[in-house]
Amino acid sequence: KAGVTQTPRYLIKTRGQQVTLSCSPISGHRSVSWYQQTPGQGLQFLFEYFSETQRNKGNFPGRFSGRQFSNSRSEMNVSTLELGDSALYLCASSLAGQSQETQYFGPGTRLLVL
Amino acid sequence: AQRVTQPEKLLSVFKGAPVELKCNYSYSGSPELFWYVQYSRQRLQLLLRHISRESIKGFTADLNKGETSFHLKKPFAQEEDSAMYYCALQARPGTNAGKSTFGDGTTLTVKP
């Protein structure tokens, strides 16, 4: 099976712009989670989608949003970018997002905000 | 609220020495705990999970509910073990369904 893919891999934006990141889960996986990874903060949970519904979200401002499509692909959007949004954004998929399931991570999208 | 604490950001040991990466958690209920590893230039991947009670690459981790810990151990570290290690708690269904909490990670360096 192909692994989790994320596009684009690298992105440079300026403050105030918005950005959309895409994640394609492993075939058959219906749960997609998004994380922000920074050197100082580690891995921070953004949100999780299952069957096109956001089931849970972390402590991020409303500028961070996402959605999931019927084929389980997911997108994450960040509006009004700030310098502090520069990070590696990871998505992970699992079969159904159950607590005992392994999450499979993508390579990440590295976002630089200037 | 669920929380995962990895008290050591950096850990350095010599090849052949024992290694222990600490992980403490807080969670109201029975947790599902995992260790994920990120080797240089590779994506984050599962190392082991407590539910499997397995040993992967010589690593083991025991869930201690009394001390709310899930420390990762290996009796003889190898240079290829150098990586970033994350302890993670994955919430059971209910209000926290789908929510995962990761520690800040520990960078392990195994010196020759």
Structural description of this entry:
The complex is a heterodimer of chains A (114) and B (112). With 114 residues, chain A is mainly β. Chain A has strands spanning 5-7, 10-13, 19-24, 31-38, 42-50, 53-57, 64-68, 74-78, 87-94, 104-105, 109-113. Chain A is built from no helices and eleven strands. In chain A, the strands form two sheets. In chain A, strands 2, 4, 5, 6, 9, 10 and 11 form a seven-stranded mixed sheet that branches. In chain A, strands 1-3-8-7 form a four-stranded antiparallel sheet, with no helix packed on it. Chain B starts with a strand and ends with a strand. The mean pLDDT of chain B is 90.
Number-wise, the strands of chain A total 11
Largest sheet of chain A: 7 strands, mixed
Broad structural category of chain B: mainly beta
Number of helices of chain A: 0
The percent range for helix content of chain A is under 10%
Question: For the report, how would you describe the main beta sheet of chain B?
Answer: 6 strands, mixed
Percentage of residues in DSSP E strands of chain A: over 45%
Number of strands of chain B: 11
Overall outline of chain A: globular
Report mean pLDDT of chain B, rounded to a whole number.
90
Report the structural category of chain A: mainly beta
Low-pLDDT stretches of chain A are: none
Q: Number of helix segments of chain B?
A: 0
